[in-house]
User: What shape does this take?
Amino acid sequence: MTNQVQPIFILPEGSQRTTGKNAQRTNIMAAQVVAETVRTTLGPKGMDKMLVDSLGDVVVTNDGVTILEEMSIEHPSAKMIVEVAKTQEDEVGDGTTTAVVLAGELLKRAENLMDMDIHPTVLVKGYNMAAEKAQLILNNISKEVTKEDTDILRKIAMTAMTGKGAEANKAKLGELVVRAVKQVAEKENGKNTVDIDNIKIEKKVGAGVEDTELVQGIVLDKERVHSGMDKTVKKAKIALLDAAVEIKNPETDAKIQITDPTQIQAFLSQEEDMLKGMVKKITDSGANVVFCQKGIGDIAQHFLSKKSVYAVRRVKKSDMDLLARATGANVVSNIEDLEADDLGYAGIVKEKKVGDEQMTFVKNCKNPKSVTILVRGGTEHVVAEIKRAIDDAVGGVASALVQGKVVAGAGAPEIELARNLRKFSESLSGREQLGVIAFADAMEIIPRTLAENAGLDPIDILTEIKSEHDKGNKWAGVDVFTGEVVNSWKAGVIEPLKIKTQAIKSASEVTTMILRIDDVIASSGSKDSGGGAPAMPPGGMGGMGGMGGMPPY
Assistant: This one.
C-alpha cells in the first residue's frame, strides 16, 4: 500500500504566486511597458497621448505624470514606476518622462545581465555605486545661476515648454513665468526659497494663448455680491475676514414667544442694527473692499453697497492666504477686532468679464508675494495643456533658483555622464563593474529617444555626439529641428540640475527595489473587499487597466 502525500495549502484559494526569474521578468516587463508608453512623448518632437476615461472625458497631453495618472494602472510594479513620475513632479515639477524612461532602460539593461547569470544583488550594488557617482559627476559639470541671470532663467522656462502645446508662444510665456517666480522668491539665510504655491495659475477658455497675462496680485473666480456696488475700486484698502457678515441661525431649535405684533418688528430691527454695527466696524477701519471667507447676508450686502464697499463672499481659504501675501493684509477672524493696521493695499480691484464669467482682479499690489498667471486659450483642452506646460516651466525655474545650478539639455549631460561612468567602471574589479557599465549605457536612452522621436537616425547621432564629447565638448547635444549635433548651452537648451539628479535618484531607487523582488504573492482577497481588480491581474503580469475606448496593454 503506497503512502499518499497530503497536499499542503499555505495560501488561500485563488492566490497567485510567481517566483524566481519568472517574477523578476514579469515585474521588469510591466515596468518597461509603462516606460515605453511615455517614451514617445519625450523631447520637442515628442507626440501627444489622448486619454479617454470611463465618463468620456478627454485629456490630450504629453506630460509624463498626467498620462500615467490618467491611465488606470493595476500592475503592482508598474504602479511603482508611476510613483517615480509623481516624485519627480512633486520635487521638481518637470522631467517626469525622463525619470520614467530612465527607470525602464535601467531595468532592460539589468535583465540582459541577469540572463548572463549575474545575480540581482550584484547588479543592485553596481547600480547604487553608479547612481552615487552620477550625482557627483552632474554637480561637477553644472553651472551656477543667480536671480540676476534672467536670460538663463528664461531659457529654462522655454526649454520646459518646448514640445508642449505652449511652444508657439514660449518666448512670451517664458517671460511671464520668470517674472512670476522672481516676484515670489524670497531670501532665507542667504539662500533663495520659492514656494510655487504662491503662483496661482488660473485658466479660462476664450481669447488666444498669446493673451495669457501675469497679474501682480490675485485673480478670483468670484463676482461682487451686490449689483449696486462699484465695479472698480482704485487705491483699494482691503479687509480679509474669516467671519460671517450675517446673523447666524441658532444651532438648536429655539422658540420665541411673542405677545405683541410690535415685538416682531423690534426683533427684526435689532437684527438689522447688529448688521449695521458690523458694516460700520468694517467701514470705520477704512476698508473699501472686503473679501469674506464665509457668508455675507442680504441686508449686510445692502448696507455695504450703500457705503460704496466692494464685497466678495465665500472665498476659498487658499485664496485668502494668497490675498494676504499679495496685499499685505491680515486675515481677521472677528469683525470687532478689525483695525486699520489689518488692511491690505491694491492699486485696483475690478470686476471683469473673462470668457463667459465675471472674475475679480486684485491688481497693482505693492511688491506682492503671490501673483497670478491667467491662462487663455481657444478650447478647454488647449487651456489645460498650456497650464501643464506653465506648471513645468514654473517648477523648472524655481528649482534652478533654489539650487542655484543648471546644466544644458538636448541629451548632452546624459552622454557626458555615461562617458565619465565608463571611466569610473575601469577602477572597479568585481562584477559590480558590469552594473556600472549597464548604468552608463542606460543613460544614453535619453539622447537616443530624442533622436528617434524626431525621426533621426539614433546610431549616427549618438556616434557623433560621443565623438564631440571625447574632444571635450561637454555640452554637445542633438538639435532635433535640424538633425545636427550642436552646443546645447549656446542653443539655449538649459535645464535645472535638479531635474537630472532627481530623475537619476528616483529611477535607480525604484529599479533596485524591483530587481530585489524574486517572489510575488497576490492574494485574491482584494477582489471581494475592495470591489476593484485583484492585486495582481490574472496571468502573472496582467496589464494596465484599459481606459474607456482604449485596449489594455
